[in-house]
Structure formats: C-alpha cells, structure tokens
Design goal:
With 136 residues, the protein is an all-alpha fold. The protein contains four helices and no strands.
Length: 136
C-alpha cells in the first residue's frame, strides 16, 4: 500500500535537492574553515594573475607612451610601487573573499539544516509505517 505522506515528502525533498544542490554540496563536503580557506586560495591565485596582467600592461603602456629611458632607479620604483599596490590589493581582495565565503557557507548550512529536518520527517513517516505494518 502506498503512503501518500511518504511520497509527498519524497517529492518535496527531491525538489528541494534540485533547487539547492550547490548549497547542499558546500555544507556536506566542507567544514567552514576549509571552505573559506579554499576560496581564499582560489582568490589569491586568480587575483595575482589578474594583477600581474593589469600591472604589466600598465607599465608597458607608460613606457610606450612616454618613451622613457629605463634606468635602475626607474625599475626599482616600478617594482616598489607594484609590490605596494599588490599588497594593498591582496589584503582587501582576500578580506572581501573571506567575508563572502562566510556568508555563502552560512546560507549553505541553513539549507543543509532544513534538508536534515525534511529527512527526519521522512524517517518519522517510515517509523510510523513500520509500526503500522509491522504489527500485522
């Protein structure tokens, strides 16, 4: 005999899983600190690459437009400014990434807790069925 409560709950869970699969994956596969660290590593790698491309393009454009002679002091100034700007950029970029990853993880954890509640409701339905049909 089909229990419509169970089928209805399973359909709800399937639709919920389909809608929130990415959030569930984050909450199930990562601890909070692991997720934040992973996002910071990715942000560091991508941020460094983007910074290098933009900064080197900027330096090349300055040299091309001004046609300056490059001396050791000019190279030192470019390197010093590059390191300074990179440090500031990375500091703020990683802080923003950490804050964003924390928000995403909290949302994922809320979704996961709701999914666990739905699973516990399904377990209750199964327990009721077992009591009902197990006594026959």
């Amino acid at each position: 005999m089909i229990k419509y409560d169970r089928v209805e709950q399973m359909i709800k869970m399937t639709m919920f899983d389909k809608k929130h699969s990415q959030e569930l994956k984050i909450a199930m596969e990562y601890r909070k600190q692991d997720y934040i660290s992973t996002m910071k590593i990715i942000a560091f790698s991508v941020g460094t690459l983007i910074f290098l491309i933009i900064y080197l393009s900027f330096i090349a454009a300055i040299i091309y437009v001004t046609k300056i002679n490059i001396h050791a002091s000019t190279i030192f100034i470019f390197i010093f400014l590059g390191i300074l700007i990179y440090s500031l950029f990375m500091f703020f970029h990683l802080k923003m990434t950490e804050k964003n990853a924390d928000i995403v993880y909290k949302k994922s954890n809320e979704v996961y807790n709701k999914w666990k509640e739905m699973m516990s409701e399904l377990d209750k339905i199964y327990d009721e069925e077992e009591k009902t049909f197990g006594s026959n």
